[in-house]
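It is worth pausing here to work through a concrete case rather than discussing structure prediction in the abstract. The textbook approach is simple: state the sequence, then state the predicted structure, then interpret. We follow exactly that order.
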Amino acid sequence: MLTISKTLFKNNCVAKNTKRFMSFKPNHFETLHNLRKSINENKDIGNNLINDMNKAFEDVCKKGPTEIAEQMIKNIPNYIKTGYLGACAGGNVKLIDAFVKRDFSYSNAANEGLLEACANGHVYVANVMLDMGANDYNGGLREACRNGQKDIAEYMIKLGANNFDVSLNVCAYHDIRALLNKHKEAAAKN
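Step two, the predicted structure:
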C-alpha cells in the first residue's frame, strides 16, 4: 500500500479512502496501468482505490481531455466499460467512436449508453445508441424524467416508452410530470 501511495503522490494523483482527487497528465495512464498490476498482485489493498481509478477514468471520458481518454482506452482495457459509460454521460461522441473502433461491446452496451445519454440530455448520443441497437425506451424515459430532461422524455415516449407510473415515481419536475400524466391518460382511454 505504501508503494502505491508514493506512486500516486509522485504522479500528482491522490486516493484516500473513499475520497478522490485525481488530476491527469499525459503519462498517467501508465501510472494507472502499473497501479492496476499492483492491485492484482496485492488483493488486500481493497476496493476503494479501484473505485477511485474507475471514477477517475469515467471523469476523464466525460469531461476530457479527450487525448488522455483515448490513450487510456488503448492502454487500460480493464476500465473500458466505465469509460464508455462516462463518454455517453458526457456526450463525447468522439470517444464513443473510439470505443466502437476498438471493437468494444458487451451484452447491454447500447442500452446502458442510452440510459446515460438520456439522463444527461444528450439527444445525439441517444440516437447513436439507438442505431447501435438500444431499445430500452422505458429506461430512457425513467432516466430523462429523473434528471429533468423533458425533450428526451418526449422522444422516448414517441419511440414507444409507456411505463408512465415508474417514471412518475422518480420525477420531481412539474412540466415533465404533466407530460407523463397526459400520455398516461391518453393510453388509458385506448
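Step three, interpretation. Residues 1-26 have pLDDT under 50 and may be disordered. Residues 47-63 form the longest helix (17 residues).
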